[in-house]
Design goal:
The protein is of the alpha+beta class. 19% of the residues lie in helices and 41% in strands.
Length: 116
């Protein structure tokens, strides 16, 4: 082979190797919202856009890193990637705990009758 042919093959092999590694990289996204529902296999958050809210579904697996336990109403940030049109959670960070449920005000104690 000529010198030009060998160097051309080297350039082509390098381009293919780089192209293959670029295709193997997964683009990572992030989303922030409030937990609407969660299960071991799925997480649903409410994302707010202006005055509108949208439900976003995420697949959760054993590989998903989770800081703590998810509770409805918590504010979370999810790092995810798309896999065939499905959002797959890679990491879930809890940003703020769920607001405390309003407790019913206790009625004042009944006045005791005057003692004689």
């Amino acid at each position: 082979m000529s010198r030009l042919g060998i160097s051309g093959l080297c350039v082509l092999a390098t381009a293919l190797a780089l192209g293959g590694s670029l295709a193997a990289q997964v683009k990572r996204h992030q989303a922030t919202g409030t937990v609407a529902a969660s299960s071991p296999a799925q997480l649903v958050i409410l994302k707010t856009f202006g005055r509108n809210q949208t439900r976003w579904n995420f697949a959760v697996s054993a590989k998903t890193k989770l800081d703590g336990k998810l509770t409805k109403g918590e504010r979370v940030r999810i790092y995810y990637h798309d896999d065939k049109g499905q959002r797959v959670a890679e990491q879930i960070k809890i940003l703020a705990p769920a607001p405390a449920a309003p407790t019913a005000a206790k009625p004042p104690p009944a006045a005791s009758p005057p003692q004689r």
